[in-house]
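Researcher: For the record, we're logging two predictions in this thread. I'll number them. Prediction 1 follows.
Model: Prediction 1, sequence and structure:
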Amino acid sequence: MFGVCLPEIEEKESFRSKSRIEGLSDLVFGLALSIGSIALIQHIPQAPTALINDVLNFGFSFLIIAVIWLSYTRIVSSLSDETSSTLLLKFVLLFCVALEPFLYYVYQTTVFAFLDFSSAAYAIDVGAMMVLLSGMTYIVIRQ
């Protein structure tokens, strides 16, 4: 009798855990997009060219986050079970996503002497997101 109930309980627990992680993921992606738009509000342009430049810069950051989110949701929907490795990849990816608007803002507003380091930090963050997505894709293919 108890043996019949245990798989059912484990399945519900796995579903609940998975949905909570996905809720956190949606929150982090939403906050990353919001932080990018707050950076726009913080700097009011004084000329049409400055407005166009700010919108294009925001669009670039938005595009990166949106593409990562779309890829992430497709990969996660294909995962059959939650393992410790997929959980680790998800959390590191969420950290990189949360860091992206900050690093992009630092890169845009940095002084020339710090430009090399800030652009390298931003490139490492975006590259890490791509590597983490490919790691999750590898897990999906292996399953």
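Researcher: Logged. Prediction 2.
Model: Prediction 2, sequence and structure:
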Amino acid sequence: MGKYYYKLLVEDRKEFLDKEERLLKKSKGNIIEIDSNTVKQAIMRMKNGRAAGPGDIPIELIKSGGQKLLDMITILLNKIINGEKVLEEWKVAIITSIHKKGDKRKCENYRGI
């Protein structure tokens, strides 16, 4: 099952490459900047009551963090999108497979969360 998810999530998939190429064409070497309103909208669209990630920080805590936290997240995201190094710990994901329907022997009949 690990190989199946790797194929879905690897960054050299066509879908990822197409997005990256569009982003590079859009920026043409310029610095890309995400504004805090865009970050806030993305955070507010996230669903409450979901399991926290490896850092155990629930989205409800981030949503109620106020402007200072929003500014810090925006700065961090801008650094990352413009090429600053990402911590190795942030590249780790835990995926659990949940059977959707059909033959339980086929990987495509599972959903990774």
